[in-house]
Amino acid sequence: MNKLLLPAILSVCLMFASCTSNTNNQKTTDEVSTPTDEVLPDTTHTSQNSLDWNGTYKGVIPCADCPGIATTVVLNTDETFAYTAEYQNRNTKLKDTGKIMWHDHGSTVHLHGKELDIKYKVGENKLIQLDQEGKEIDGELKDLYNLIKQ
């Protein structure tokens, strides 16, 4: 009988040990991490350091009172720019030069010259003109605000 008593006691002890609460290892609802929808920007791979951004970009931008504005932007590796805008069916042309300023962790170029103050988002072989607040232009004509690399 003594031979059966020792295994029975051990079995009961193991049973009680497995049934005890594990409250010390459980997190309260305040401590539980919840997944978020927040996506942190990749600041190591930017348009400035990952794309071949220098070059000549061209396009015809919409105009309120003319057929369009033939626009050429040249971005140089020394971070200078040349800008030309020719209003179609008019005798008006704007030319300006200056230094490129990079914004938004290297994804936006700010062209600020003597007469020019405009921002473009730098994409793969294109520049996307931004509005006065630095946001992408939305609506039916949004694709017309892209300058394509030549």
From TrEMBL:
The keyword Phosphoprotein does not apply. Keywords: Signal. It holds the Pfam family NlpE. Residues 1-23 form the signal peptide. Residues 24-36 have a biased composition (Polar residues). InterPro entries: Cu-R_lipoprotein_NlpE. Residues 24-47 are annotated as: Disordered. It comes from the Bacteria. The keyword Ligase does not apply. This is Copper resistance protein NlpE.
